[in-house]
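Session log. Operator J.P. requested a structure for one protein chain; no other inputs attached. Running the standard single-chain path with token output.
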Amino acid sequence: MTTNLADAFEARAAATPDAPAIVVDDEVGLTYAELDERANRLAQVLVDRGVGAGDRVGVLLANGNEHLEVLLACFKLRALAVNVNTRYLPGEVASLLADAGTRLVVHEPELAASIPAGLDGLARGDDYEAALAAAEPTALAADDRSGADHYVLYTGGTTGRPKGVVWRQGDLRLAALAAADADFVGRRVFVACPLFHGTGQWMALAALLAGGTVVVSRHASVDAVALWDLAGREQVSHLVLVGDAYALPLVEALEADPERWPLDALTVILSGGAPLSTDVAGRLLRALPHLMVVDGYGATETGGHARIVHVAGAAPASAFLVDEDTAVLDDDLRPIAWDDPREGWLARRGPLPLGYEGDHDLTRQTFPIVDGERWAIPGDRARWVARGRLEILGRGSLTVNTGGEKVHVEEVEAVLRTHDGVVDAVVVGAPDDRWGEIVTAVVQAHPGQAPTLDELADHCRAQLAPFKVPRRLVLVDAVRRSASGKPDYRWARSTVGE
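Structure written below.
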């Protein structure tokens, strides 16, 4: 198994050139040979625009064949594709692109205004297709490729702003892609979640390297009826989504019209990036009892390494089955034995990223070396419930996971405090049946100037991506802080009601 992603894809395209590689709604269908040729043409376009090995190419695209073509073209050139959340506001886009040192951005045409002035851009659509048509279709020489070539994925995580996690491609394939190799051979994998997130991107790449067919939709929102229509029409075998934010409207649509869709080919629903509740998993299995519902866990800093498998007739499960490289570490970073009930930090060893791009301090903090062993500790808490099985307790107080989007609360708090009616503010996640958590503002207002939720939301919306905007407001007489001035997040969570 070659560990360079460009070599691996080209080997797959050579072995099965006529096999279907990607389907986009009902408008695009490409074989492996066609996808490889388009990636070759795009690689030539990038070279003509000055992109070479080690350069960064921004990917500000919704789901579609173009998104994967940019990834493959960058792998071929030994350049790095930089994922950009299409929900970001222009200032957030500019900050990420500057952090990455991006040379060029391939973008949705309607997002052209988000590209900073002076930065080269290529819009999907007519401009993109014309550039590919004029380029040579032959592969560029790549004798110097190896599994040590870099791959970067930007994550919101607990870092306060997006940070690029840098992997060697060989390590990434072992930690995040290889587990799906056997599962996806010849399968039709509907990646319903965004390709700019790790779950979507990794599952799409895994399917391509395994010779499967990737099915995607350009629709950004979760339209349950349209999604099931596409899944049924394309007879998908696997559906990849993100937690209850996707699964709840899907199961509600099935329950409302159980005979509408031909879903006999669907065998696996895989959730990653956000928790899937046992209630929603159970409802999916009642609607489609032939399914296996897999709640997968992983992080940009670890790859995938834990899962819960739900099947019809089995008792509901809440403990994750983990691999042998997964551990729970105490505050001194010592492994906690499986029969010790203490809570600790969820950690993984083995093939790991090199670290965060440009942030050596955060790299040392997240990837510590203890007794000669290098660990990744992305920030989740956990405890053992049996040998090889643990309960994941979630992130610390500074991160809200809302529908798979990670929101750093201090960023939202800083914006709230600039509102004229706000004296102080703390932000926490409040439980929500669909989103897992919703961003909730606990606000101390100036006397007689109490702002409404709509007013604060409008204020935040001007500076923050929509998923970061508070959806709930709790007004308090005073925000509680410690003697050192730090917010009391435990108090705040109890105030909003856990």
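Operator note: The chain is about 30% helix and 30% strand.
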